[in-house]
Design goal:
The structure is a homodimer. Chain A is α/β, with parallel strands linked by helices. In chain A, 42% of the residues lie in helices and 18% in strands. Chain A has 8 helices and 10 strands. In chain A, the strands form 2 sheets. A 7-stranded mixed β-sheet of chain A has the order 6-7-5-4-8-9-10, with helices on both faces. In chain A, strands 1-3-2 form a 3-stranded antiparallel β-sheet.
DNA sequence: GTATGTGAACTCTTTCACAGCC
DNA sequence: GGCTGTGAAAGAGTTCACATAC
């Protein structure tokens, strides 16, 4: 059954794929059992956090022993829905979009890009990586006729919100957005952002402080 | 001066670039003043959160009026260190690495990729986008002679931890990792992950629940 | 009147610590 | 003995609400 649990924190869910990845590695190495202690060491996470996270979903371990690697991995894959294939539509087949199509990391994990859209007449109708590029003007109709599970947005920032709105109107409930914009979606739609510039811009905060103190080899700030 | 404030939560810092982006947009539109109310609406964030976040760094607003767009933007850029140029080294010039080099979004924000490394003899010594690809075997020596601020890792997963360790050994304190691995760095080094698969894998959690209930229009799970 | 800046209240997460089981 | 699962405690982060300033 695996009945829908009521209210599991988002941060917990976002950690499960990380656990699954580590477990897959352990299984590939032939490990059969692992403790929360070991797993935590591997991941830089406290053992208590791992146990607490897992406890939202059931009791997967054996006291005195630990977790069966293969069993826990299967459970996590089931919980996350990684035991099926997911159909993605890519919007934007420019340089970034083509890199996404060419990326070999999605399909082994069950994510298949099955549709591609663009607005450039030079690209519409051409085949890229087994896909015929469709006109983005037909996006809504096309997705209504033959739905996908997830939309990937890889268009320039100026068009991204518009594309996101169209995806939502077409019934897509999960969107992965590569465009560097502040985007909003209605409640109930899940949007994740891939934004390297944002990541860099928060790293520079720390770098700046390192550099500004760099000269004066140590103890320069007030106390201790 | 802008003296190093003691302990500002990481989540606060990660929101500042988002505020800065929204402010840059407002400025481009000619807006001169904005309230936390409006800005919050734009970003899907509470006004109180914006005010609290900003209050860690100073008092930038005027009561009864709001924030001067240009002034606040400049302050944020200074706080984040976006008022200078940052030098990046890219490790891995395969398909992904080339997409990163070709991405036009970094340099307008002051992030210049000034070095590129690879292990493939066919690529070493060739020029890509103004850069001569260096041998990754020389990574540490090269970076010691001529340091960069940030390292970008775009090698296959199997080599990524090794590359990250070498970057750290070379004195790099901020790393942006595109490889889909669970990586660890010593305390003091800042590592950010760009990992679309991880994002997708947490989105499927919600999708699965939508789908599993999809058929049976409502109330079907055990109790309540 | 209007909107900031901020202590206090609240909510959400993480960690502790130990009973229970292997 | 060893490790899980979990209430309780501690710690972070967010929101409230109002004094203060324009």
């Amino acid at each position: 059954m695996t009945v829908n649990p009521p209210d599991i924190p988002g941060v917990v869910i976002s950690r499960l794929p990380v656990y699954a990845r580590a477990l897959a590695l352990l299984r590939a190495e032939g490990r059969e059992v692992v403790s929360s202690q070991e797993l935590g060491q591997e991941l830089g996470v406290t053992p208590a956090q791992i146990r607490k996270d897992l406890s939202y979903f059931g009791r997967f371990g054996k006291q005195g022993r630990g977790y069966n690697v293969g069993l826990l991995l299967d459970q996590l894959r089931t919980i996350l829905g990684l035991d099926r294939e997911w159909r993605l539509a890519l919007v934007g087949v420019g340089r970034l979009g083509q890199a996404i199509l060419g990326y070999g990391g999605f399909s082994p994990q069950g994510f298949k890009v099955v549709r591609a859209f663009d607005s450039d007449p030079a690209r519409i109708g051409t085949a890229i990586d087994h896909l015929i590029v469709e006109d983005v003007a037909d996006l809504e109709e096309s997705l209504r006729n033959d739905p996908v599970d997830i939309g990937i947005v890889a268009v320039p920032g100026d068009y991204a919100q518009e594309v996101i709105d169209t995806l939502v109107a077409s019934g897509v409930q999960s969107i992965l957005n590569y465009a560097p914009i502040v985007s909003r979606v209605p409640a109930g739609v899940h949007l994740k952002q891939i934004d390297p510039v944002l990541e860099l811009q928060s790293m520079t905060y720390h770098l700046k402080r390192l550099q500004d103190q760099g000269g004066q080899d140590a103890l320069s700030s007030g106390k201790a």
